[in-house]
């Protein structure tokens, strides 16, 4: 870990003087490299408990040899509960578009902001943008029911001289056409300038069917629609929502039922604009791939699940990846099935191992059914429905690997044709399990988790010999940047090495900076951090600290937004929405001689 070494002159620069300095010296030429100079872990009570801050720096080297070192800073856009242009940030709305309020008339406000998509939308005035933000959870409603999740749309203005961003308006996004939004977590801005979000849990439809009147999804439905007589439908939730924003601030929302139903974390659209790989936050969970029928259109495609074929156990382990075809579908046909089917229409199931063995059932273990082994049979003609509405169960049924423990965010390095995938905790089903129905993953325990590197090849075949029509098929996976568990807590209570990552969650890769940014959701560090890892120099730098108890969330990298660069970075509990400034912009007009 490099300690912060910043010249006194550079340390005194403000955001405005930095941007002026970066803009002025045109003779310096294009940027050759970027190096992050990390900061120490927090030491004082103020740093540990009360600050969302950075004391890191960035050193920029230009092609002509000129170098510049400038401190980073954290800029807060808003905190949930702030009133902006008469509107409260972080609220949720019901199916009628009404802000949901407590008995005292005050709105429910989320303390869990997550994903950010800052976007340029054609037709907006110059230096004006929209920002979509997720709110992963809402406080429990005072009537004991589940509050709906939320996304908001902010209007953001930039000061072109300094690059400073200011939110001037904010409003909730309406999800009433798709039955509301369920626990939105991570997401991305697509290459075609829409927002792809996530629903982080898929309600257990088997458990719901046993007791539908009081299930979590029914409590959500009653609250969202304001009707105590309603029964919820679990198959409406656990999907990838896509949000399109127009210049007038209107939004169009769809859910992609053909991408399967699971606990989505972050999906990544590959450079062909057809292939999508998934981070899935289940325990246990699988690794999935979707190949759309047409570019920039995720309404129809083929869904696959990975099989881990282990090749090693060192440094987080390694494996070859094989692919099991689950099926092909359109959003329209699966949404229709979702509205008409229940779990027992698709599966015969028992928890009695003797009965299961005797009658030819298949033993599986998924996050549903409380991670207990269940014995299932797919009913004749229900294969497609099972594949897209009970994706984890069906994947396990066909022999794919459903043993990953809290798979989280992922991103792609196009130049090197590699992806980086976070496994937050290498525990539980990733360890040897001699009594499990299958035991593909057998690795040593690393409670701090780590980042895995994925390699790709084109036009591979499935386990049954069918061609996969994609140039971006993951073929291997290996530990890349792992955390380190401590034998005993250190003086600050950390149970993982404080100078290495622990329990990575959000990740985002910058092609221009050759840097992987990593945000933590750790119980093993007393404070969670955001890190910068240079994939060429292998230098790991701590660049942000979140107040104690908080989670670092919402990473988005904008390498050049009208002459300025931003790393969007939020936190949950305590809640901040903001960005790291001081980054060099890869604006060719600004940097050319």
Automatic annotation (TrEMBL):
Annotated keywords: Signal
Pfam families per the UniProt record, alphabetical: PhoX
Signal peptide region: 1-23
Xref: InterPro entries: PhoX
UniProt key word Glycoprotein: no
Domain of life: Bacteria
Key word Signal present: yes
Matching PANTHER family: DUF839 DOMAIN-CONTAINING PROTEIN (PTHR35399:SF2), SLR8030 PROTEIN (PTHR35399)
Name of the protein described by the UniProt record: DUF839 domain-containing protein
Species name: Neobacillus rhizophilus
Lineage per the UniProt record: Bacteria, Bacillati, Bacillota, Bacilli, Bacillales
